[in-house]
From TrEMBL:
GO CC annotation: cytosol
Gene3D superfamilies on file: 3.30.420.40
Protein name: Pantothenate kinase
Pfam families reported for this sequence: Fumble
Database matches in CDD domains: ASKHA_NBD_PanK-II_bac
Alphabetical UniProt keywords: ATP-binding, Coenzyme A biosynthesis, Cytoplasm, Kinase, Nucleotide-binding, Transferase
Organism: Lysinibacillus macroides
Gene Ontology biological process terms, A to Z: coenzyme A biosynthetic process
Domain of life of the organism encoding this protein: Bacteria
GO molecular function terms noted in the UniProt entry: ATP binding; pantothenate kinase activity
Length: 278
């Protein structure tokens, strides 16, 4: 049983990281709207002595667990960058400079150089937008249903591509790029679309907005690699492809890491332990 754990209480999900007996990282997720389950889990692990905490819902989490153990707070962006640097190195990546785009409920974008980092910007378009817009347009609210449906959807009848506008002419930019997300609907007056296709298009919108912004920061900072993290990417091959393809089209290199959702929790854990991977 772990003596120390890291917790990242985010807008949607609360992530926990700790080391098992063989010094392997173990990662667990809870919904942030049910922090009692986190408390229950801590009670079930009585060996825990120290808890590193981070994330926007830290106060709410502490209301539930504060009297239980020794608590060590670390600011969210510090924890995220500490964690992502560690996870990148663990997977063999050592970038002198990179853009880190954290697609959580909302999206936060950072520039990392060596051991230094700054938050360069962000957008309210994130995982929360993916769920919110999918729910409002199709009635489907479950993240796993959403990502599965997006994978089987087709954006062709909904998005307007550059080549759809420049009919019979050379296009000034790649004709397959999106000219207008959802733009074909207004032009064709077609409002009858399959839920799969609408959700795939929502996911395209979310992915492209985030990628566009990340690329602008990468260019401003003269940085080749963009590391995309956050639980919105979890088992979500369609979104990952949207982001990867668009990043490559714009001549940058997308990087995805295995434990992409847990940078904050790992950073909160590292803040209270001296961990070197086995
Ligand atoms: N089991 C799940 N339940 C709900 N959303 C999920 C789930 N798995 C992945 N997601 C997606 O991940 C997003 C949350 O990502 P993440 O956990 O990185 O954000 P957060 O830390 O909660 O939010 P923030 O950092 O903005 O405070 C959700 O908006 C949703 O799109
Ligand atoms: Mg987060």
């Amino acid at each position: 049983m772990p003596k120390a754990i890291g917790i990242d209480a985010g807008g949607t999900l609360t992530k926990v990281a700790y080391l098992d007996k063989s010094n392997e990282l173990v990662l667990v997720t809870f919904p942030s709207n049910d922090l009692q389950t986190v408390k229950k889990w801590i009670i079930e692990h009585p060996d825990i002595e120290d808890i590193g905490v981070t994330g926007g819902r830290t106060e709410q989490l502490l209301d539930v667990i504060k009297t239980m153990k020794s608590i060590h707070y670390i600011v969210e962006f510090e924890a995220t960058l500490k964690g992502v640097r560690f996870l990148l190195n663990k997977e063999g990546y050592f970038f002198e400079r990179s853009i880190i785009t954290n697609i959580g409920t909302g999206t936060s974008i950072h520039y990392m150089e060596g051991n230094a980092h700054i938050r360069v910007g962000g957008t309210g378009v994130g995982g929360g937008t993916l769920i919110g817009l999918s729910a409002l347009t199709t009635g489907i609210t479950d993240y796993n249903n959403i990502r599965e449906m997006a994978a089987g959807g087709n954006r062709e009848g909904v998005d307007l591509l550059v080549k759809d506008i420049y009919q019979g002419m050379d296009t000034p930019i790649d004709g397959h790029l999106t000219a207008s997300n959802f733009g074909k609907v207004g032009i064709t007056k077609s409002t009858n679309h399959q839920a799969e296709d609408i959700i795939a298009t929502v996911q395209g919108l979310v992915g492209e907005v985030i990628t566009t912004l990340s690329i602008q920061y990468a260019e401003e900072k003269n940085t080749q690699h963009i590391v995309y993290i956050g639980s919105t990417l979890s088992n979500n091959e369609h979104l990952t492809c949207v982001i990867a393809n668009y990043t490559r089209t714009k001549k940058h290199t997308p990087v995805f890491i295995n434990d992409h959702g847990f940078s904050g929790a790992v950073g909160a854990l590292l803040n209270i332990t001296e961990y070197t991977p086995v």
